[in-house]
């Protein structure tokens, strides 16, 4: 069978979201919307110290409060192992296992009651006494255990010290980034319901299959006995990639009470219980020739981590391969602090690392007297430094060129502080981004039934990125069906296994599995179509037949053929299904490096020198993400991530009280995220070609919005004012 | 002793039996099954729970249900009854003015009120008067475009648009 040509109305172009109507009507069921008969509610009690132990915990008053069904503390909590390691690192430590306290806000008890109001009121009655120990909260504090390169992710090539000693120009600076909290608007919720030894969970997760595996392991159940539903998630931004303690507590609470239990985190609990981007301190050393060619690049980071959890945060990874440089030394160290366990948040590691690397490049450009965009162009990496292989696709130079043209980079006066308009100082800044490649094994299943429509599914999650929509488009294209004749379903652990929605990896991983399933299903139909009495395609070979409009027909005579429904009817079948498996390509076979997506970021800032107002007037991101399945939705993702970058640059800082380790701003009133009035013109353009290593041709979009945005803004602030700001977020007082 | 409150919700009479401290948000979601209205902070800081009270936008998490006796509440479920689609809802889909969709009902209720307030005269005005509704997916530019689009329809069609 020949390839079905993509119908231009289905692919690339901006099809509206297939689940849009349910969202604008408020009908999309988020985990917090799930209810059961006899549903009980849980409220958590959190530690009010950051280090020490619980010396006494008194629950009697809470147990006797109206409506209370159970109070669970470390004294009566079942003993649980730690969950199994996953594709993206270790599981969080299981909750309520002993009297030890490692951070402010750690769960010390849960109250289950008939109503949320009763549970919350009774939670206030749990009396906890502590033995307080000295906490460590500062990345510079030597009392905190320093873990040197704990993940073995450090890398060296060449001789950095030698190259720095002989470089014509050298540059060195330190940078820091504050902790940032994910803060999806949807409160993370787990609804747990047992029926005998079978557990159903409705969970705020980005990885349905992992919740099933982890909970099954913790409770000693076969995986089939745990069913996880997550059709919709009210935002996660990485927080839904791990099975956090509250989900485990909800399952235990339901088991103990014999009732379905809903556990919805409060906004303050969203700051301490589901991870967040850890603070970093970084040092970058660069050596270059006068031509701008880099000869040495050293990038070291120290990253905050909790006392007992782990969190792989690849801050300096991007510096290994972002630029052509013969001598490179990168390393991520961690310091253990009495802080809530960090976790992934939008482009983990790259968000912090790109700020330091791209700020340093900008600083070097001024030292060289060279246009910062030109400096990046001169250090374009022709091959992938990890593998030494040529890129499977890399349109980074197009990102620079198209971006410069679209942004009007030529209008930039290179002199610092030279551009003004009335009282506004104007600055232009640029940053480059080479993200990580990420694709893992994934499964899907496609079915066409007697009515001629298709049902394609996988346990994957649509976290708002548009997975449901683009996979519907992809399936429709592959099966030669209209969009309305394809239903793509996901978010159910009984469906074929899928990796997480995260790391810009799902669309390719899942897309390849869907591609395989749909091609295989087409093949099965073709076999049947040429067989049996009455087949209009009898004798045709696969080369003679194409699929379109829900029909298999002769390529040279579209009138000769039959519909999927007719094929099934003629063979007396109700439906036909095929399984698809997507596996990552093997560079050893292709001879090409697995290419990540690339981007260039351009920023214009305006600073009112008299009033101290800093406005991000314009942001442009030019993206090479391979094939774009739906331009409208891909654009939304980049715009959203870019605005998240405005938050990282200007507003967001999770503040730990230096005395107690309590988060001092754990509300939306105090922790500022961008609002509509903070956002100026946010532009996006796509360049490049479909990546040849997979049949789908995608490289991932989601993570390209945020990283690099803060660097482009900080670089623009320097251009406008001559003030180099090396710590995030940029505060107004730093501008004077 | 229970407090009994009689109100109208989405143009239908409703009675609530309350202990007292229940917010309008919890009463809508837990007692009336109107789960389209979302809880994002329960502190009046995110706008996800925005509903119309007598036609004006309010934060239902900061409104006690017991205060609503004799009042008219409109939630996202009441915008376009009988399976219809309100022009603001249609514009949100057309302009992809959301991603995860969680803050969306609150954004839409706020946008409907904003148009009624006559605050959609310019992008700057829309941005300013929609800034009480947080969107962490940051669909803000598309939200502004959607509202601008409907404001344009209103300007050109007047009352015919049904907004």
Q: What does it look like?
A:
The complex is a heterodimer of chains A (736) and B (163). Chain A has 16 helices and 29 strands. In chain A, 24% of the residues lie in helices and 24% in strands. The N and C termini of chain A lie far apart (68 Å). In chain A, helix 11 (467-479) packs parallel to helix 12. With 736 residues, chain A is an alpha+beta fold. The radius of gyration of chain B is 16 Å and the shape is globular. Chain B folds into two domains: 3-78, Ubiquitin-like (UB roll) (Roll), CATH 3.10.20; 87-161, [2Fe-2S]-binding domain (DNA polymerase, domain 1, Orthogonal Bundle). The chains are: A alpha+beta (736), B alpha+beta (163). At the A-B interface, helix 1 and helix 15 of A face helix 1, helix 2, helix 3, helix 4 and helix 5 of B.
Short description:
Chain A: It holds the Pfam family MoCoBD_2. Chain A: This is Xanthine dehydrogenase family protein molybdopterin-binding subunit. The complex is a heterodimer of chains A (736) and B (163). Chain A has 736 residues and is an alpha+beta fold.
Q: Specify the overall morphology of chain B.
A: globular
> What name does the CATH topology of the largest domain in chain B carry?
Ubiquitin-like (UB roll)
Strands ordered across the widest β-sheet of chain B: 2-1-5-3-4
SSE-based structural type of chain A: alpha+beta
Q: C-alpha Rg of chain A, in Å?
A: 27 Å
Q: Helix proportion of residues of chain A, in percent? A: 10-25%
Shape of chain A: globular
The largest β sheet of chain A comes out as: 7 strands, mixed
Kindly state the mean pLDDT of chain A as a whole number? 95
CATH architecture descriptor of the largest domain in chain A: 2-Layer Sandwich
The main sheet of chain B comes to: 5 strands, mixed
Mean pLDDT of chain B: 94
Based on DSSP secondary structure assignment, what is the total number of beta strands of chain B?
A: 5
| End-to-end C-alpha gap of chain A | 68 Å
Q: Could you name the CATH topology of the largest domain in chain A?
A: Aldehyde Oxidoreductase, domain 4
Biggest interface and residues each: A-B, 60 and 56 residues
Specify the structural class of chain B.
Answer: alpha+beta
Low-pLDDT stretches of chain A are 1-10
Protein name (chain A): Xanthine dehydrogenase family protein molybdopterin-binding subunit
GO molecular function (chain A): iron ion binding; oxidoreductase activity
Keywords (chain A): Molybdenum, Oxidoreductase
Pfam family, one (chain A): MoCoBD_2
